Amino acid sequence: MEPLEMRITHDFICPWCWIGEAKLDEAIREEGVKVRYVFVPYELNPDMPTEGLDRKAYRTAKFGSWARSQAMDSHVVDEGRPHGLAFDYERVKRTPNTLAAHRLVWFAQNEGRDARALVDAIFRAYFAEGRDIGDTGVLTDIAIAAGLDGARVRELFASADGRAEVRALEAASGLEGVNAVPFFKIGAEAVSGAQPVIVFRRALRAATRSDMEAHALSD
């Protein structure tokens, strides 16, 4: 049996994407399924300035008050904790533009790499360590730590490589009806949002059954 494809549409400033991916990972471990990850970009703020914005000012304007933003952050912290995710919003000073981060993941996948560890490292750098993941120097350091070649990554960011490709992937997702993240395509099964682990387990079982039936018919 070939590994089951996990097609994950996400953005790096979406805490529910990180939580959802952690829940999916738990479900995969519990079901003992062999999988192949494919990450699909989705920019929640495609018009964000390249240098990002001060998070407090941005979130206050977006949600009406800093107090409301902090209450939402507190809820995220509580939701992430049982899944081993440490959100530290005190350290997060900027809301970044995520195009460069998506270009990096596109590059890694285009090189034939499993980008799961890289994706998790980018989420962790932003939400747990407060690093500016819109900064290509920060992203280069993350990429090197994840095993990518630093010189190749610097070449990527010195060029326009990946820009058009990321935007094309985003447009394709829109045409397929994806208008919110996280969105998971587990084989032929679709799961929207950071659902409970049991929902992902059920989707994995259904996708595995469908995959086995398809292989049986082709034999």
Mean pLDDT: 95
Q: Main beta sheet: strand number and arrangement?
A: 4 strands, mixed
Distance between the termini: 12 Å
CATH top level assignment: Alpha Beta
**CATH topology annotation:** Glutaredoxin
Q: List the domain count as a whole number.
A: 1
Strand order of the largest sheet: 2-1-5-6
Description of the molecule:
This protein is an alpha+beta fold and 219 residues long. It has one domain: Glutaredoxin. Helices cover 54% and strands 12% of the residues. It is built from nine helices and six strands; from the N terminus they run E-H-E-E-H-H-E-H-H-H-H-H-E-E-H. The chain has a four-stranded mixed β-sheet with strand order 2-1-5-6, sandwiched between helices. A two-stranded antiparallel ribbon has the order 3-4. Helix 1 packs across helix 9, helix 2 (55-63) packs across helix 3 and helix 6 packs antiparallel against helix 7 (150-158). The longest helix has 22 residues, at 197-218. The protein starts with a strand and ends with a helix. The model has no long low-confidence stretch (mean pLDDT 95).
Describe this structure in a few short sentences:
This protein is of the alpha+beta class and 219 residues long. The protein has helices spanning 15-31, 55-63, 66-80, 99-110, 116-127, 136-145, 150-158, 163-175, 197-218, and strands at 4-10, 35-41, 53-54, 94-95, 183-186, 189-192. The model has no long low-confidence stretch (mean pLDDT 95).
List the helices and strands and how they pair.
Layout: E1 4-10, H1 15-31, E2 35-41, E3 53-54, H2 55-63, H3 66-80, E4 94-95, H4 99-110, H5 116-127, H6 136-145, H7 150-158, H8 163-175, E5 183-186, E6 189-192, H9 197-218
Parallel strand pairs: 1-2
Antiparallel strand pairs: 1-5, 3-4, 5-6
Helix pairs in contact: 1-9, 2-3, 6-7
